[in-house]
Amino acid sequence: MAMASANALCMNPGDKDISYANHSSLQKNTLLKIRPFLEDTITDMLNKILPVSFIKVADLGCASGPNSFFPTFEIVDTITRVCQQSHRESPELQVFLNDLPHNDFNTVFRSIPSFHERLKKDKRGLRVPCFIVGVPGSFHERLFPTRSMHFVHSSNCLHWLSKVPRGVENNKGNIYMSKSSSVDVFNAYSKQFQMDFSKFLCSRSEEMIEGGQMLLTLLGRNITDPTNKDGFPLWDLLTKSLFDLVAKGLVQEVDVDSFNIPFYTPCQKEVREIIEKERMEIFEVNWDFEDNDYNTNFVFEKNRSGQNVAKTVRAVIESMLVNHFGEIIIDDLFIRYAHHVGSIVWDLVFIVLLTLVSMGIGSL
């Protein structure tokens, strides 16, 4: 049976009508929420390792667009401030921006000059040596030399699995876990997440210096039941939209039955079973990126909110859908998807799990 391929996952490039660069405000809202944790983590690390001549940082799952450099700027800002306060010269910073090989790295690289200009402007000419490197590859594998990294950051990525789990071939009528899915499907997704997340942590434990730290943000759920609305109801709505096209004869039902998304939102307990005695925070973010803490003028309007969410999801998942169903159905699919989302978007938030991991030699 043909399955959706995790290798087909890449954010829509800058030349697409619905590009990730232009439709990633939702992810930006998450980054804004975790900014205090990022600053605290970097500050704590610096207080332990300074003085050093250089610091190596990785941002795993950088995608493309304005969000690609947001964590890097915050890291540079924190390093500069801490070094000023301690009357030290800022160490050189090497930043590794990682994503899958099909990521739009061209857009990322074209943004580097403007990033450096912003650094010069905001730091008023202070010397902030920052060298950017692109690293294509899966973060479920080794990416860097042994004991070479000081800090690793990842946001909105680790809920994507390395592959569609084995054992979901009988998940007919669904593209993800749903109330009609069998127990075997739930177990397959959970097992795949455990394997992938453990492999991610083991790879990083070999790459990081003793005392290095990681700040990881991923989608999750508040309760153990994966079919609760915290699980990921937007995939149910995408399933519904696909079957709208089946009813019109535009999509074959067998193609929907063979499409399962390599994605999993763990509950807090599942993450804690893999990462013990580490700091973890949970917060909620609205799926409509305009409905956030900074937009005091927000007024809910179901059609607009449905379109906002649909564009955000499309910018992320379109490549996988095209790979499986072809490109001709995409516009019609997301028109229907926006309509379905608009009917319930007022009740849609996603749960974010934020984990701080301190790495030591021999850990994990």
What does this structure look like?
It is built from ten helices and seven strands. It has 364 residues and is of the alpha/beta class. It has a single domain (6-358), classed as Rossmann fold, CATH 3.40.50.150. A seven-stranded mixed β-sheet has the order 3-2-1-4-5-7-6. α1 (25-49) runs parallel beside α2 (70-85). Keywords: Magnesium, Metal-binding, Methyltransferase, Transferase. InterPro entries: MeTrfase_7, MeTrfase_capping, SAM-dependent_MTases_sf. It holds the Pfam family Methyltransf_7.
What composes the largest sheet?
7 strands, mixed
Q: Helical percent range?
A: 40-55%
Specify the number of helices. Answer: 10
Structural class by helix and strand composition: alpha/beta
Q: Rg to the nearest angstrom? A: 21 Å
User: What's the end-to-end separation, in Å?
Assistant: 36 Å
Strand fraction: 15-25%
CATH fold descriptor: Rossmann fold
Tell me, what is the CATH class?
Answer: Alpha Beta
Mean pLDDT: 86
Question: Numbering strands along the chain, what is their spatial order in the largest sheet?
Answer: 3-2-1-4-5-7-6
InterPro entries: MeTrfase_7, MeTrfase_capping, SAM-dependent_MTases_sf
Pfam family, one: Methyltransf_7
Keywords: Magnesium, Metal-binding, Methyltransferase, Transferase
